Amino acid sequence: MNKLKELKIVFESENDIEMISELIADCFYKNNVTGVVIESPVELTDEWGEDPVVSENFSVSGYINYLELEKIELIKKDVSDILNSFNVKLDFQTRDILEEDWSSSWKEFFYPVEISKNIVIKPTWRELEKDYKIIINIDPGMAFGSGSHATTSLCVKMIEETIEKNDKVLDIGCGSGILMIAAQKCGASFVTGIDNDVTAVEISKENMRLNKIDDSKFSVFTSNLLSCVNSKFDLITANILAEVIVELIPDLQSVSKENTRFIFSGIIEEKKDMVIKKMEEFKIKPEKIYNDNGWIAISGSY
């Protein structure tokens, strides 16, 4: 059996707990460690049964392949750096875990996520309690993207509001493919996804097919930002870190048309102005700004 190393980061803070959790989770994603679990204490009721398994602390856990254990120190450094300005007490814990055990047990953490009255993101092993016009079936596997992250739901909302029929769409950092599926089901004629994580690319393809999207309607490939993209698009989405968005914006002209629209997400509130400044520098006019518990999504166009 293959082994994984679990890195659990237990924390205490008087700041916004959800914000701290997501900042720590992003340090895992930044280092291409996916399948991240965020846990928090809960108040037990009779509904939990006789022997519930619950967390006693606020924590974020990620799972690292034994061939990539150097990532543990990188993540610890990133977490310490990004939380340096917050009053947070951190405890880094590691343990061995069997990959086979993790591959089934992680599913208990994911539930359907209602994006709007029309759209829901549904893990394949869950049932829905009501009908929706658009159902995005998802099996995240070990790739980032179950729909529960605020930045993902903000992006899907903006896609629903922004997309036009027969748009050609590019998703930069496609993760498990949720934004590609949303764009296609909202009317795109063709969707392209890129990610620097080979696992994410394969899971994106699987999820597209899971949603009965024909292979002729999408393309997904491994790429570092725009290095392998040669087409031009009507709508471009990027749900990635603010620093990467700022790095990306100057190169977007090569894949844009005169009226291309953009959706940027994965931005913490403190870095919103940095992204807007770079957008305006390259003639992208900000149009809508959504905020969900300190996470920002911005739409704009030339």
Mean pLDDT: 86
Annotated CATH architecture of the largest domain: 3-Layer(aba) Sandwich
So what's the overall shape? globular
Q: Rg from C-alpha positions?
A: 19 Å
Looking at CATH, the homologous superfamily of the largest domain is Vaccinia Virus protein VP39
Low-confidence stretches: 43-49
What letter string, H or E per element, gives the SSE order?
EHEEHEHEEEHEHEHEEHEHEE
CATH topology of the largest domain: Rossmann fold
State which percent range the strand residues make up: 25-35%
Notes on the protein architecture:
The chain is α/β, with parallel strands linked by helices and 302 residues long. It is 28% helix and 32% strand.
How would you describe this structure in keywords?
alpha/beta; Alpha-Beta Plaits; Rossmann fold; 2 domains; four-stranded antiparallel beta sheet; 8 helices; 14 strands; 32% strand; globular
Helix/strand layout:
Blueprint: E1 3-13, H1 17-30, E2 37-39, E3 58-65, H2 71-82, E4 88-98, H3 99-105, E5 113-114, E6 119-123, E7 134-138, H4 150-162, E8 168-172, H5 178-185, E9 190-195, H6 198-210, E10 218-222, E11 233-239, H7 242-248, E12 256-268, H8 272-281, E13 285-292, E14 295-301
Parallel strand pairs: 6-7, 8-9, 8-11, 9-10, 11-12
Antiparallel strand pairs: 1-3, 1-4, 2-3, 5-6, 12-14, 13-14
Task: Provide a brief overview of the structure.
The chain contains eight helices and 14 strands. It is of the alpha/beta class and 302 residues long.
